[in-house]
What we know:
This protein has six helices and 16 strands. By secondary structure, it is an alpha+beta fold. The protein has three domains: about 80 residues, Structural Genomics Hypothetical 15.5 Kd Protein In mrcA-pckA Intergenic Region, Chain A, CATH 3.10.290; about 90 residues, Pseudouridine synthase; about 100 residues, Pseudouridine synthase. Strands 5, 6, 7, 8, 9, 10, 13, 14, 15 and 16 form a ten-stranded mixed β-sheet that branches. A hairpin with a 3-residue loop joins strand 13 and strand 14. The longest helix is centred in the middle third of the chain and has 11 residues. The chain is elongated, with a radius of gyration of 23 Å. The model has no long low-confidence stretch (mean pLDDT about 90).
Amino acid sequence: MNDSIRILEYTVSGGEEGMSVKDIMKTVLGLSTKEIARCKQFDDGVLLKRDGGDFAFSRVIEKVKAGDVLRISLHEDNDNSSEIIPAEGTLDIVYEDEDLILLNKPGDMVVHPSYAHYKDSLSNILVGYYEKTAQQHVIRVIGRLDRETSGLIIFAKNRHSAALLSDQTRNMSRRKEYLALCSGVFEKTEGTVDAPIGQIPGERMLREVREDGKEAITHYKVEKQFEDYALVRLHLDTGRTHQIRVHMQYIGHPLLGDGLYGTGIRDHHNMKRTALHAAHLEFKQPISGKELIFDASLPDDMAGHLLS
């Protein structure tokens, strides 16, 4: 696979006159020291145009003037990427541009290939889509969704966008919302669960609320209460493994279909997976900074329960 290139162009403003090219690359364009060093390895990596002339090679210590145009070429080293086998499949593409693709993941599908899902993960299908659309990108997922969780998930298309999006995810918890079907009748229509979560000793997968766990905070609001379950909207201040599932079990409202934390309710109301959906996401386009807001409707297996 050949290298792909993401080109950034930036016109220097009057307030930035006298800064070095490196300063612009780092503080304005958000490039890391490592990425700047990589750009310097290519003839077209750092180019500067001034006084109406043509783009020409520039050292990063060059001082810029107002009106100068900086062109940075970010080369992707796709030859060194891990191989993921392309697969046929349908993608629910919510949004796509040259820096990222936002997908609505089905429930009961893993994001990454594994021993048991070597060719049928979401990443396999995305690689197949990239091939069909003549795009050359490494799979770089931002954030994570469990196999059974459906909903919105971001894949960055280049290393620079991945770094900027990853920085955003550290503060994205309040800008991401989930919808869940939780068992039981809620006494309070909204509340906060502030209870530390840690791994159960001797268990690789299972987590529980425990005093020696890591801080975990979940906010919930009941959207609609049914006879013995409710549609609940949630957002997190922290991102612990299985946080929503553990916290809802802890307050006595495990999710419908949860085989790990909802003992005895795996087939409750014919829900064959954990009833959790990443429904709402807000973030900034990593290069332009434009605010992006998306919602993903409930999948059929959850939406059908709202008709009861």
